[in-house]
Amino acid sequence: MSQINLSVHNRRIITIILLLSAFISLASQTMMVTALPFIANTFKVSLNNAQWLTTGYTLIIGVIMPLSSNLYDKFTNRQVFLTTIGVFIVGSLIGCLATNFAGLLAARLIQAAASGMLMSFQMTTMVSIYPIEKRGTILGLSSLVISSGPAFGPTLAGLILQVLSWRWLFILVLPFMVLAWVVGYFKLPNYSIPRDIHIDYLSVLISLIGSALFLGSLTVFEINLPVGIIMMAVGIVLIAILVRRQLHLKNPLLKVQIFRYPSFTLMTIVGIFAFMVLLGTEQLIPIWGENALHISSFVSGLILLPGAILNGFTASIIGRLYDQYGPKWLIISGGLLMLIASVPLMSISNHTSLALVSLAYAIRMIGNALVFSPALSEAFSDLSQLENSHGTALNNTLRQVSGAISVTLVVVIADAPASLITGIRSAMWVTVLLIILMLVTFGIYLQNKAHQS
Description:
Growth Hormone, Chain: A, 2 domains, 17 helices, globular
């Protein structure tokens, strides 16, 4: 891709189209969070089964993302974008017409396949069409969408479900995605040159089966411990085989050699922990509100709204601060804010006020924004232009699969004890552990960087 061949006007069109469509697809990722208790009751399925509407979505995003770098090279940008948006539209249509849980899950997984491709396409394009001195600002915009989309999803869903049925979670996104497809068809310039490369579909299959077995084992553990252990072991072996296979392929699904850069490895891990905390927390609060306090999905969504707004606002300015000052104090202050906000969440009960939980969540989301954007930008600091698409695929894949693990883990922990409040408190402690691990990883990165200099 060449930056020189793109005018300022075309670059702006590309940016608007990609950010808008990515925001919608990512908001759709978490729209089911506030709807899970309602859908579980509607289709007479357990909460553990219902959560696969969110976990499955996140899992498929993670499985599809490794394909993105290959598809990005094999086809033109117009072909990739129009096909991706088209697939999302098809998934949304199936969701509108679903008559049972299986149909609803299928719709979500089709949407997720498009969302995974779109997220990587958006990030790779943004990194590639802007000069390197604007990378922090541009990845700030990208991380704004990545973090605020899922943050706004539960609130939007709560508002929709207050007055409409769950089908409108699919119906209302359709006009926006159709508009994105039409605008893309007429306005999106062709700025990439396809290459004749081979896509290793066996790696795709191994990735799907391995990830599904590993994540599925977390749900199976409380039903059948031996089966859960076997599923997890087989999943880990398959993932190890996948990584080993990538080292010997001419055109790997995932270019794992990128992990030789400590900045990419360590800062990707920091971003993973931040994302796990974000998804885990916003999954737990609606479960607490709707199942423990018996409030509506709309009110549950309102609890999350201030956090979503403040997360988006903070993320919008962090990119420029990163360009000027670097990641150190942004990430440290963000991690400390997340820990401070954890105090009321760890002692949550039936008597905890909604305002206090909303405030704690909002502070956590500000902290999350302070961490996520700098971590994302710093992860790409040592990659070459040719490595950007593979770095994006790896970063997004690991983050989304880890996010799926986080959602599954907190739901299983929350649902395990006889007392839901006890379970939610335990799950909140898990998110605190993730924050501590995030800060420890960043400390290792700072030590490594100081040693190199």
